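Lab notebook page, bench 4
Experiment: in silico fold of construct C2
Operator: M.H.
Input chain length: 283 residues
Purpose: comparison with the prior construct
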Amino acid sequence: MNRTNKIAQHPLLDENGNPADFLIEEWGDMNAFSYDYLKAHRHNFYEVLFFQKGQAKHDIDFDSYTAKGGEVHFVAPDNVHLLLRGKNSQGFSIQFTNHHFSDDLLTKLPFNTTKPTLTLSREAFKTVNYLIDQIRLELENRQPMSDSLIRSYFEVVLNLLIRNASRSNTLQSVAHQSHHVDGFKKLVKAHYSQHYTVGQYADMLHISVKHLIESCKEQTGKTPLKHLQETLISEAKRQLFHTQTPIKEIAYALGFEDPANFSKYFKSASGFSPMAYRQEAGK
């Protein structure tokens, strides 16, 4: 396995190198990428990949998927992914920031789930392609209300994906989350390396610890402490899996003052020492 020194993170930029909120990336011109897409990387934006024909190998975090025509894959900002396309594969991806659509809509899509993929029927994929074509027209021929139409067209696409995902049970692990649970998970993603307690998160949300625990257990089936652990361990695994960064440096970056404590924490949660996990992942 070819690991890098660190996981690269790429911003969403338009063709002129300016920050963007919404883009369609056509897969035809592989030279158009502003970064090395052949190395595992992460983004600061959401990406929905549409596979039209051919095959590809798509790694998302620690799992590999064989993609074929009619499939849709979902990559969240904190995921590490790598797409290796077959010679005759065709498709495109929609890239957008969380400023473009509501959090309520995004939480209904299979980002950061155990199955971040979806297979559409031929008719559903045809409808999606039609709507994306309308977006392309608005992007190419900017007119008054183009931005609003682009947002509306793609919101329809996302709702179609949600409906199809619900039918195929892809969203069985995506719960409808309250404002407090959603806020808690966002805070955890932003501060997991600071090792705040559940009580400190509850204070940030201006609710009681009891209410936070009950809300998380009711809507996700997990305690807040479990969410904290899973977020921290997932990031540790990404660093061990995708980079050759020394384990002690990973420990410090994740907020552990003593690398030995990190090793104990990781082994308790995963069953492997950090070194054993890295060796097993590299097979």
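Observations: Residues 31-35 have pLDDT under 50 and may be disordered. Residues 69 and 117 are 12 Å apart (CA to CA).
Next step: discuss at group meeting.
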